[in-house]
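A student in our group prepared the protein record below, which I am reviewing. Thanks in advance; the entry in question is below.
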Amino acid sequence: MFIQTEHIYLRALEPSDLELLYAFENNREVWKVSNTIAPFSKHILMQYLETVQNDIYTNKQLRLMICKVQSHQCIGTIDLFDFEPFHARVGVGILIFEEFRKQGSAIEAIDLVKQYVFDTLLLKQLYCNISSSNKESIALFEKCGFKQIGLKKQWNRLSSKEYEDEWLYQLIN
């Protein structure tokens, strides 16, 4: 176990997470927020699980699984990415599986990551990028103390002729 609240805990990836990773990495609804344009094979994901070192200083990223304390059921994932130790910042992204949304787990997971980032890694700031149409994520990150600091115009392609703006949010410790 990594860090926890009364209801959830964050843990490192395990080989047993292969099926979960396969399911959400190949979910086209998630692709638009993860900048993915092609499916992942189980073989590639297994190689990733076998070689990931869970060292944010080496990989410049860290994926953690969000699990329920009582059942140990995995309900989502939270990622730290674009780790910049010199500048003391890291990006954050979260995915809660649809059937577990609106139960407060995302807020708890972000609070745990904030604690880890500020108290353990001794970073100065967290940031996230949110599509302007993603009202749920905007509300979540604002509730967690993030401030809207910029707008990237027509940042994400939706179709051959349609683009969407993306907000930049920041939380400074």
